[in-house]
Amino acid sequence: METPEFKSDEEFFAWTFKKISESLTNLAKRVEQVEEGMQKIPPPGADMVKYKPPGSPAYLNLKELLDLIFRVMNDHEKRFPESSDWAIDVQDKMKAEIQKQVYREIDEKIADKYEALEARLNKIEDKLSE
Fold first, then answer.
1. Burial letters 24-41, b for 16+ CB under 10 A, else e
2. Of 2, 81, 104, 114, which is least packed with CB atoms within 10 Å of its CB?
3. Distances, alpha carbon 14 to alpha carbons 8, 26, 30, 129, in Å
4. pLDDT at position 44
5. Residues in CB range of 50: below 8 A, 6 or more apart
């Protein structure tokens, strides 16, 4: 916006003060909007994080969520004995499952290779019989 021409210094100062007043009013409105936005941000702390665990009717803040996690962990620790035999038994079962999976994968790869070899042999036999 260009500055208009003025007939006197009084007109210039009146126009300048009006523009300054408008600028201050706009700035005050923007500051007010920023302050309203800042009030919506939760204060630092546990309430900054909200999470709704599956099956929970409400959102939990960070403290409530950690309390829930540790309570569930403690409940599980109480339900299972702390004997090393139990842990070894679980490890043995896991190793057996992993071995079964590896053997299945090896069998599948061998079967694929066998089929390819069988197809090649059939082609060779067909050519020899011609």
1. eeeeeeeeeeeeeeeeee
2. 2
3. 10, 18, 24, 111
4. 74
5. 59, 60, 61
Give this prediction's pTM.
0.35
Domain with 14 in it: 1-41
Exposure on the CB side of residue 88, measured as CA atoms within 13 A: 3
Q: Within this chain, do residues 69 and 99 fall inside the same structural domain, yes or no? A: no
The count of domains in the chain is: 3
- Rounded CA separation 4/14 (Å): 12
- Identify whether residues 128 and 89 lie together within a single domain: yes
Strands 50-51 and 60-61: antiparallel
Q: Which residue has the tokens 């994080």?
A: 49
Tell me: the pLDDT tens digits for 20-57? 999 999 999 999 999 998 888 777 777 777 889 888 89
